[in-house]
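idk why but the lab printer keeps eating my pages so im just putting this in chat instead. protein + manganese (II) ion:
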Amino acid sequence: MIIVMSKNATKQEIDNVERKLTDLGFKTHPITGEVKTVIGAIGDKRALNTVNISTMPGVESLVPIMKPFKLAGRELRHEPTVADIGGVRIGGPEITVIAGPCAIESEESFIETAKKVREAGASILRGGAFKPRSSPYSFQGLEEEGLKIMARAREATGMKIVTEVVDTRDVEMVASYVDMIQIGARNMQNFRLLHEVGLTSKPVLLKRGLAATIEEWLMAAEYIMAAGNEDIILCERGIRTYETSTRNTIDISAIPVIKELSHLPIIVDPSHAAGSWKYVGALSKGAIAAGADGLIIEVHIDPPNALSDGPQSLRPGKFAQLMDEFRPVAEAVGRSMGAR
Ligand code: PEP
Ligand code: MN
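predcted complex ->
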């Protein structure tokens, strides 16, 4: 429910309405606009059967929130959200690029990659420390040692760092190292994990599930937001279709649809969508042109010997070349790529 306060409502009247809603068991989200204040009330609306909020002093009207994603949707918060990852913004005029290897393999290779992607214009460094592999016999990641390497790479380059968490037991530990926590496609509907990252104060990069609808994806964001963490960045990474020429099928439509339904920023992962480095450039340009706020791209210094996702990883030189090619595409849609 959205409670629209009249433009002459006093602070006292707004506070009274908010207190009443809290007493009824609602979580309130006051939004102060230039002209009016609105209060989003999220909870069981049956509680309103006993009290008439609409007659309280200062209340102009009550508007139901029609969509199931109350906090992630545009009904309550119309203005786009700009996420702040330790000073790096996602969702503003600039296209933010996150880059790095699929997995952290060693300190030396990770820091070398970090320096190269930063030089090419990436501002956030990616790297998996806990790897959810399709096979239990594949490399599973360096775990906490990987997080320590990430933290040292942040120190060496000034980049912000993002890594995936796969287990509720590791959330606090991962949050203590990184600037942004990633929820992988395979865990998009792991509701306990979503709740747990919702209790942290770190921004969350929420990947779309392999076969998730846009509504299911926004409901996953809603889980995190309902736990108190509203800094979410959505990531389209390709979905399962009958097409086998690429690893997944990038859903470019998701970008304008999300922009219409939600105020949250959305970035695109062309690497996991394509499954081949050859298509990463084209998919990235398509994503920028369609309105994506950023990209997350896998880059490896020696793809043939990568411990995971080598075939889709760009070499640093190719990544730098593509970054230059993205610039005019970004400018054509009124965005910029940021300084090198
Ligand atoms: C990743 O980013 O390394 C990853 C495993 O991606 P996804 O969850 O999208 O498969
Ligand atoms: Mn990967």
